[in-house]
Structures are given as C-alpha cells and as structure tokens.
Model the fold of this input.
Amino acid sequence: MSGGSVSLKGVTKSWGVNTALNNVSLDVPAGQFTALLGPSGCGKSTALRIVSGLDDPTSGQVFIDGEDVTDAAPAARDIAMVFQSYALFPHLSVAENIVFGLRVRGLSRNERDQKLASAAELLGLRRLLDRKPSQLSGGQQQRVALGRAIVADKSIFLMDEPLSNLDAKLRAEMREEIRDLQRRLGVTMLYVTHDQVEAVTMADQVVLMNHGQIEQMASPRVMYEAPATLFAAKFIGTPPMVTFSIKLLASALTSEFLQKCQNFTFGIRPEALVPDDNGAIAGQVAHIEYLGADTMVECKVGEETLLCRVSGKTRLASGMEIRLALNANDLHVFETASGRREDTMLKEIEMALSSQTAGSVSAFQTQTQR
Amino acid sequence: MRNSARYQWIYAWMLLSPAMIFLITFTHYPAVQTVVSSFFSTARGRRKSIFIGWDNYTTLMADEVFWKVLVNNFWYAVWTIPLSIILSLAMALWVNEKLRGRGFLRMAYFTPTVLPLIAVANIWLFFYTPGFGLIDQIRGLLSYPEQNWMGSPDTALYSMIAVAIWKEAGFFMIFYLAALQTIPPSLREAAAIEGAGKFYYFRRVAFPLLMPTTLFVSVNAVINSFRLVDHIFVMTEGGPNNASSLLLFYIYEVAFDYWDTAYAATLTVIMLTILTTVAIGQFFFLDKKVHYK
Ligand SMILES: Nc1ncnc2c1ncn2[C@@H]1O[C@H](COP(=O)(O)OP(=O)(O)OP(=O)(O)O)[C@@H](O)[C@H]1O
Ligand SMILES: [Mg+2]
Done:
C-alpha cells in the first residue's frame, strides 16, 4: 500500500441557506498525515464526507491522485473510512465486521482469512474475533473499525474524530497507535478532530477550519510559531495566545507610532512573557493556576489581561505587583478587522521598540541578550 | 430477618392480587371452562348438560364443515402471513427512503390500519361488486367478462385474503418503519464505502437487524390469520357453500346461530391448541436467528 493524494478545489456545500463549506480548496499530500482541525460545526465532517463521496458538493471538485472523482461512488474512490461512531455491524462478529468489504468484493475464503489474520495480529484483536461489537470496550471497537479499514487495502484513510469517545489515557495510546499505523502502512491520512493537541501531536500538516472556511494550512510548528490569523492564534496552544492592544506598550513607544497601531491587535504566547523587575509592563497578579512543572499567572495591566507561564516553583501570589518583559520578535501582529497576520507591521514595531530611550529599552534588551 | 422476609412475601401477593383476580376471572377461568364444556353435551330445553367424554371430538372428526374451514383457514394463513409481511417490509423500505411526499405516503399506507375492518369490508364490497365494482370496471375497459368475485366458490376465499392483506400490511409497516429508523445511517454509509449495493446491504445488514421485528410481526400475523374474520360477516357470511368460511367464523356460527355451545367449545379448544403450538414453535425456531441489541 502507498498513499494517494487528495485535493478539494473550490468546494462549496450548502443545505438551503445554511452553508457548511464555503469555497474550500485544500491539498492532502500523498503518504502524509493531515489533520482537519476546527471548532464544532465548522464543516470538518462535511469536508470529509465530500472526500469520501457520501455527500456531493454543491459546487467544486474533488480530486484523488489527480483524477476528478467528484461524481464517483464512494467505493470507487480508493478510500477507507473510520466513523466517529465506528459504524460496526452489531449482529456480526468482530471477524465478520472486519472482512465485510472483502466479502462484498467476493474475495476467496483463503484471502479473507489471511488478511483477517494479519490485521488481527497488527491490532491485537486475535482473541476477540468471535465476539460481537457490544461485548467490546470502546478502544477495542475502535480497533475493529481500524481493522476494517486496514484489510480494505485502500491508499487513503479518512477518520472522523475516531478517538472522541475514549477516555484520556486510552486516547493518548490510540493516538500513537494510529500515527504509527499510518507510517507503517504508508497511507495518506485525513483525520478530523476538534482537539488541537491531537492535531498538533499527530499530523504532518494541519488544516485549520472556521465557519466553513480554511484559516490556515501548515505544519504544526508553523501554525504555532506564525499563526496566519487571529483565530489560528487563539485556537492553537494550551493555553492559547493572549491578545492585547498597543496601549499596553505605550510607555515604550512614541505617540505617532501608537496612532499608527490603532487598527492592529497584538499577541504573545504565555511562555514569551517573563516576569522581570526591569520589565516595561507593570501590572498586578490577578490569579495563579498551579500546573505542577509550570504555573500560569494571570496579570491585570490596565484593562488588559495577560497570561504568562512561569516555573512551578514561583513565589508569586495573587494581589502582588509584577513587571513583565518581552522580546519584540516574540510578538505577533494582526489586523483587527480582518484578523490577518501583518508581518510588515511586526518589523516596524521591532524597530520602534529597539530605538527607544534607555530606561524602557533595557527591559527589551535584557530579553534580547538572554 | 425471617419475619421481614415473610412480610415481603405477603406484600408481594397483596400487590399482585388485583391483577390476578381479573386475570383469573376473565381469562384463566373461561379458558378452563371451555375445555371442561367440550366434554359435556349442550343443554337443550329440559335436557341437562351431561358428561359425554370424547363424543364432541368424535363428532368433530366426522364434521365435513370443520375440515372445510380448517383447510380454508390453512390457505388463508399461508397467503396472508407471508404476503402481508413482505408487503409491509417493502412499503417500509420504500417509505423510509429520502423521497418527496414521504409523509403523505406513510399516512396513505397506514390508513387501512386506522379504519375498522367492517369499514374496510364495505370499501372492498364496492371493489368486488360484479359489473359495477372497481375491479370489473377496469376489467371491462380491457374487455374481460364480468366476474362474481365473492359469489363464486373459486374466488371467494381469495377475495377475503386480499382484504386481510390490505388491512394488515399497513399496520406491520409501522413496526418495520420504526425498526428501520433505529438503524444508524452510518451502517449504510460504512457498507456503501465497502462497495455494498442496496440489495447486499439489505440482505447482510438491514434484514438481520430487523429480525426481532419480523418475529413480533409474524407472531401477530399468525394470530390474525385466525382472528381477522370481521369482513367475512359483511362480505360473504362464509359462503358460497362455506367456501370462504374460517375456523373462528364457524365457531361463531355454531355458538350463536345453532346455539350448540358445547361443540363451539370443542372447536375453540382445537383453535387454541393450533395457535399455541404455532406461536411456541415460532419463538423457538426464530429466536435463534434473532439478534437483539
Ligand atoms: N444534513 C444537514 N443538513 C443541514 N445542515 C447540516 C447538515 N449536516 C451538517 N449541517 C450543518 O453544516 C455545518 C457543518 O457541519 P459539520 O458536521 O461538518 O460540522 P463539524 O465541523 O464536523 O462539527 P463537529 O466537530 O461538531 O462534528 C453545521 O452548521 C451543521 O449544522
Ligand atoms: Mg463532525
């Protein structure tokens, strides 16, 4: 088995006035793990169902391996699918569930048994083959659903939130198993999830969706380090990026420059914000959240609230005065109205901050030198 | 400890007793009384009812009408049971599809069930009327001769069978429809992705999942094949020459036209025996093939 590529070109799907997908174009590279990420109701499942052929797009095209399959039946698309509910046939045994598709295609008994045995071995299902789905745990059911996809010998796997019914520990285990399986089989994976941790830990490429549109399509690292939109900045990361207006940095900037920054929103990751006695930002600790290795400190600065990640051993307590320092190139700048990332503005602000008077600059410089 | 256990036992009986009293007076006692009556003669005028052993059963063995209605009832069951089930399943599958006017179709199919069988019989009376009836008018257009559907011994029973199927199929459809709607759509989608066509999906997935409903419906169909005789009163009164008479209709005639209550009791015992045997057999036979969720 080796993967095939999938792409959507200008796909729109609507039900009456309700538009689930609005002119979506995306590419899933062959043999890679692509996660389709977004909040509930953003159209992830709809996109997956259009790739699978279970739903037809209102307009736009679907390509698999460069071939237009928009009008092809699901079975003709070289895909295997794992449903969120697993969709196991309740009256059939585990073995019969796994070989269901092989029977449809009329494979000989020998071939069926062979494929079943190797899939059962791979997934550790050997001793469960005679059970009915109702006699399995959630994780085992999920493996059966995976088994059905594996024996199908398809080059593209589609999965719709397959782990959302499992508990946290099992989910972490299954994440690794699925990732591992995808690498071993070399298939192309399109994996729907609303859990950003899942997407970031598993995927080669993350497609972030919101309101039926794609916000950003990038590797997890790029998505974290350079979110393309405000939405992406606030969706990725635990806790997500904190945003604030330029007034926060008023002490370090000239008034003309402040004027220029009116229409922009600024953001910084909590780990880039550091308590520092010479820091440019003065505020008060509002709330402390102890997480073990780390502590999240919520600070009030004027009307803004900032979040900063410090060591778990910190002696900070709520009500204390605090000064925070930041490194100018850790800042993210977005146009407030469109939410789009503005890197030219970021350059200007880096320049402005570094050319300031000695008193305030020190805070930034200590950071830069650190 | 022992005391409280005894109290619970008394308590249980007290709670059960109202239902028990009704069940015994109106179901168990008459059933037993029927069996007892079948061994006695019918009281006529001065003659008292006396114990006559198996005499009623000997009479029954020699009763040509009894054998006639039994054979009629056999064919009535053989046609109505499978046809009404198959028809109801087909209608349910059809109505369950995403098609236009689905709500209207469902209602249309269900209507025969809401109508009393007597009203249904009246409608069909109009269909069957020789010469003027709907069926003959259509046949007339195709220049076929008139046909007395209910009056000829060859067609009378089958005319009754058609009415019963028409009446029952809509009712059974509702059960199948309800069962179909509990099957998650993702099963059909999973089958579609594996390349299963509609028929394959029905055979390997939908039909097995409908088995509990099929069992329930078939037991009901068996009971109805003995029970549904109202239309015979309105349409043929068992005629001509008992050609369309069924067991229950014959029991009615014996009991309330000839007032031979003991013989009617004997016939009833036979009917109950048949029904019980068939129903129990069905459960044992089908239960193995049924997947309960
Ligand atoms: N059959 C349908 N008819 C009408 N609207 C629908 C239908 N299916 C989905 N929608 C709408 O399309 C939008 C996208 O739905 P979709 O199922 O793709 O969301 P999702 O991103 O998968 O969400 P979740 O994470 O909750 O599964 C939603 O607003 C939903 O209400
Ligand atoms: Mg979904």
Notes: The pocket of adenosine-5'-triphosphate (ligand 1) is lined by residues A 15, 18, 20, 38, 40-46, 194 (CB under 6 Å). The domain at 56-287 of chain B is CATH 1.10.3720.10 (MetI-like fold).
